[in-house]
Amino acid sequence: MRGNIEMSSLDLIIAFVAAGVIAITLIGIRTGRAASRTLEGWMVNDRRMGPFLTWFLLGTEIYTAFTFLGLAGFAFASGGAAFYNVATNDVGYALGFFILPAIGLIGRRFGHVTQSDFIADRYQSPALGILIAACSAIIMIAYIDLNIEGLGAILNVLTAHRLNVVDAEIIGFLVLSMAVFFGGIRGNAWQSVIKDVLMFSCIAALFFVVPYHFFGGFGPMFGRMINEIPKNITLPGPTHKLGLLWLATTILLTGFGQWMWPQWFNVAYSARGSKTLKIQAVFMPFYQLVKVAVITIGFAAVLIFASQKVAGNEVVMLLAQQVFPVWFLALFALAAVLSAIVPAGPIIMMSCTLLAHNVYAKLLPATKPETVFGISRGLVFVVTFFALILAIVAHSLIALILLAAYNFIAQLVPSVLIGGLFWRRATKAGVFAGLAAGWALTIYFLLAGITQIDGMSSGFVALIVNGLVFFAVSLVTRPVPSEVLDPFMAAARDHRPAGASGSHGAMPAPAE
Amino acid sequence: MRPPMIAWIIGLILVIALFTVGPVFFNSATPAILGMPPLYFWFVLVPLLNPIILGTVYLIDRREQPVTDEGEY
């Protein structure tokens, strides 16, 4: 078993990874530059992305450093509870089958480019749009932070603490910022194709090599798991805290919360139509088997590292280091680094666009579109820097960062999903009150260290309270008039081609 | 309510139930199913069932409202 590799080999690996990152950055710039001359081109590729690029764009946004490193770490530390993440995206795809085409049709009709545009139009409230844009942009920084944490873990293992990780992160994210600045969403989608193929090949290799290298096959590996670590492969797991009720409530919270992430919500806008989105929903669940493979590696690591103290975030890289030859380890390291860098692109872009388009431009309505576009791109460096600072000062298990972020973002479910597409009686006052209750409770739970209430996910409890307040306040306040709301709701059912449906029609002016 | 909407709601509920109720019956380390621990087996099986469920919903939806997207790949 190769525990550590020689320094000369490390240098080669680092040089290969650096060259790979530069190459993929140039590819992103080259493929996306032409389409990135306006905000709509930069953010949603002028709504022209077909099934091929949408598949990889969704893949890169969902399968990040968390999938590559964090999920194995969570399985390693918390056992069977990690299966929640297999379910999260599948429930999300089933939900997205209907809601993404509906949101896409509404967006095409009224010229939306962000979730905040959708909310402001639906509730006829620019203030609500600004609030949600600002809060979402802040919550998204946690998601960028997650990828930086992943990058740090990769470099920690790869360099045996020889390379200054903070410096490496700064260099990596400067490179990323340049790629996002020039390449836009289309450039990122092409980067994603390379990253996904590389990442899934590497996970598949590790998934097949680990059982044979350490256990003599899958059968003996599963046999040892069943006999030696039964608590680690079931619930409530080795911590005795994450039971079946936690699993069910976390699946509901994260499954319904998935499309509340503004960058994922925007796939509804960048896709070229309903058919593209529905086909994604049918086939994306196959991607989830990759997560099962990663969880398997996490369970196997419990047996392999039984007598060692190992950080959860690092188990995948440590195993790769032990089983692969140097040339493949270099590819593996590049895949791992790209899994942290490429997915951060759309998240950073969305965070910047929310701040420029939905906060700055709404507060200063005279701002010209080209100025908004310029600010959005300029903010790329600022937002990335904040995420970098957060990663440096607050290290944590990647999975815990993700779960905490979900607790916040899922509070948008009543306003976006229920009120946005189904319940015409929902009001902006109901949304304000519900969000205030949900986010206040989530902040309290976070500060008090409360992750569960009677076995349920604390974020789910906050969402229930949020929903109740949303319903109650909506029922006693004045809804958006029918003559304004009818065209909005009707647009979700208009399946005519974009030109025929009169794209970019204007909603009646929101009155605050 | 139109058939595509009914099909989608049934499909969504089915997917949620498979993931939230199913583990209740498979949350043990033994007996192995096809050589796998039961909970592990369940989370391998369900992602394979989902495309079948959503594929059925898609076919019902397409029969009712056939649409063709315009744009690039």
Write a concise keyword list for the protein shown above.
heterodimer; A: 512 residues; mainly alpha; Sodium/glucose cotransporter; 23 helices; globular; disordered C terminus; B: 73 residues; 68% helix
Identify the CATH class of chain A. Mainly Alpha
Looking at the structure, what is the overall shape of chain A? Answer: globular
Q: Output the helix-strand order of chain A.
A: HHHHHHHHHHHHHHHHHHHHHEEHH
Query: What class would the helix/strand composition of chain A place it in?
Result: mainly alpha
Give the tally of β-strands of chain A: 2
Largest sheet of chain A: 2 strands, antiparallel
Helices and strands of chain B, in N-to-C order? HHH
Average pLDDT figure of chain B: 90
Number of helices of chain B: 3
Q: Could you explain the architecture of this structure?
A:
The complex is a heterodimer of chains A (512) and B (73). Chain A has 512 residues and is an all-alpha fold. Chain A has a single domain (7-393), classed as Up-down Bundle (Sodium/glucose cotransporter). Helix content of chain A is 74%, strand content 1%. Chain A has 23 helices and two strands. In chain A, strands 1-2 form a two-stranded antiparallel sheet. In chain A, strand 1 (452-453) and strand 2 form a beta hairpin. Chain A is globular, with a radius of gyration of 23 Å. The termini of chain A are far apart. Chain B is mostly helical and 73 residues long. Chain B has one domain. Chain B is built from three helices and no strands. Chain B has helices spanning 3-20, 22-26, 38-64. In chain B, helix 1 packs antiparallel against helix 3 (38-64). The longest helix of chain B has 27 residues, at 38-64. The two termini of chain B are 33 Å apart. The model of chain B has no long low-confidence stretch (mean pLDDT 90). Classes of the chains: A mainly alpha (512), B mainly alpha (73). Chains A and B meet through helix 3, helix 5, helix 9, helix 10 and helix 13 of A and helix 1 and helix 3 of B.
